[in-house]
Amino acid sequence: MNYLDKIIRSATVENMAATNGVPNVQAFVNLYRAISARTIITGFVYVSENGRAMQPLQAGIVNQTQADAWANVRQALPDKQLIMQLAHVGRQTTRSGAVGASNIKCMYCKAPVRVLTKAEIEEIVQDFAEAALRAQKAGFDGVQIHAAHGYLIHQFLSPYTNNRTDEYKDRPLLLELVLKAVRAACPAPFIVWVKLSHGDDRGLTITDTLATVKRIETLCDGIEISYGTMEYALNIIRGAIPIDTAFEVNPLFNKYSPLIERLWKRFVFPFYKRRFKLFTPNYNVQAALEIKKQTSLPVFVTGGIRTQQDIDTILNSGIDKVSLCRPFIKEPDLLHKLTGNWKSGCVNCNLCTIYCDSAQSIRCHLGEKK
Ligand SMILES: Cc1cc2nc3c(=O)[nH]c(=O)nc-3n(C[C@H](O)[C@H](O)[C@H](O)COP(=O)(O)O)c2cc1C
Question: Which of 151, 191, 225, 348 lies in disulfide reach of 288, CB 3.0 to 4.6 Å?
Fold first, then answer.
């Protein structure tokens, strides 16, 4: 098995930029150099100021200074295939001025949401195209359009957040326009991948996703299949729920008084807990296989893939690539360990996830706290 071709590093928030979104070149180079995968998808990079996430150290690609820093990252890593994940967070931010397909708030971020006008949507389409072109000029091999996890494009794909009455009630339209604009802006050869949630906790189903895939079949080079939105963020990744750590370091939780914390844990947490899905290995593979059967596009899958045996089985079943996130946080050199019986040391403690919403750079926190 040619694992270098088949195993990719799934997008992972790095929190390694300055507050103006300029990536810290040395930090990125060190991180990516240590990762044994050849193909690395960056953590989500913002395509416009109003598309920024709550993380203060998220990197951007909206101006030349940011693009120049990315070009330096690229130049230092000639052996890597670098794919920049482009995202607009829409309503999933705590920053003021959040926008969305509709005014329905995100239960997690809670910021008021203003409905995007048609003119603003057209601007966002252009923002994606310009960001992709900057990434291409910076030497990136391609981009991945983030249409999963409840971010803006997912908000248009979802029947829950898209209650529009204009032409965007056609839910895949925004993604289709973004892909057309990116293709028009970036001359070949330039890879364009898309990350999709095959379902979520608010009504998006695999039937919706299959319809979306059909719409974009000729507009991109591959799709990565994931699950969920930030409203139930732990359903994207699954595993432990380190709630004490969240109250300590996560800006959405650590603002509460000890009394509110106790009440929240007692009365609100059980409600959330019931909605959380258990971690089961390879939890998106079945959906990815169903999608694979119905498309000519290369299909990648992410989510809970933890053993070499499972990687082999997934790839032998027709999936084109597997993408790993937490295993690379735990063991960046894991590709060198695939000698037959590798099992990831990641136990899905999810401390990396809780810390990732703060201003701390990505690393494995296993064993530090509960
Ligand atoms: C700390 C952390 C940061 C993540 N950042 C991103 C991101 O920037 N973009 C994205 O699409 N997914 C992100 N994800 C989701 C992963 O790419 C991946 O889809 C998910 O973790 C399931 O894969 P795994 O079981 O191998 O971790 C993140 C996950 C974690 C744990």
Answer: 225
